[in-house]
Design brief:
By secondary structure, the protein is an alpha/beta fold. It is built from eight helices and twelve strands. It has helices at residues 36-47, 104-107, 112-117, 148-163, 179-190, 210-213, 231-240, 269-275; strands at residues 12-20, 26-33, 55-61, 64-71, 82-88, 121-125, 132-136, 142-146, 167-177, 197-201, 217-223, 247-253. The strands form two sheets. The chain has a ten-stranded mixed β-sheet with strand order 1-2-12-11-10-9-5-6-4-3, with helices on both faces. Helix 4 (148-163) packs across helix 5 (179-190). The chain is globular and about 45 Å long.
Length: 279
Amino acid sequence: MNSMPNFKNLVTALFILTCTFIFAQQKEYREAKIDSLTFINTRKQLENVNTSLFEKRLFSKDSIRIPFGFLTPKDNQTGKKFPLIITFHNSTRIGNDNEKQLEPLAKIWLRDEIYANYQCYVVAPQFNKRSSNYVPTNDNHLTSKPSNEVSALLTLIENLQKEYPNIDKNRIYLIGYSMGASTAQNLLSLKPNKFAALVSVAAVPDFSNLKKIENKNIWLIHGDQDDENPYDGSVVFFDKLAKSKNLTFTTVRNLNHNTILSPFLTTDEIPQWLFAKEK
């Protein structure tokens, strides 16, 4: 595995405001300036990460077929419990080659320092059609609705827990970008008690089960220049969960749909946040 150079010195990310509300809900703003060279180099380095440690598998249920990559912990000792990460791809990775879905949020777990210090199981499913579809709400926003394949993943997770009993049932995490973030929200809404935490980057939100997810550990990340999956959707989602005790909403100023991931791909911020959460 190749070690990635650290681009943090090229990414200017500064907390300029953090508001903590009476219910412990957090809303923060960051300034980020991603120049084109930093963006290209970060993506290039992740594209060059060796993905051979992801075992190629196929999940079947009735007529549903979902290829998925499966990563096991570096030191998978008997008796030690490890978290399970389910990471979801965006719409440009739709297919059935069991390769394209290994996008940046899947590859960060292969970075040398992450693979060594944040050991876990990682599942990266690939969908052959949209896993989430966007429909308008009554108040002129968009909401996401899951495909049938998404609910089938609950069976895949149960199967893996039986196969690997050292998966920590209290630390099953969801993470995704764009359509994948919407899908992660869909799965949390379908089975809130199954998951310990969610990281959602540039999603169209799921408003279907807000009451049941209001105390879940959720980190929303969105760029305020996003006009593909509108930033306002995350604002509305945050406002609807005003009573949440465990919701954080990070707005990154100046970043759009394509650049929003860049500040998070060369640090351990996402793994560190996830690993601190339990059911």
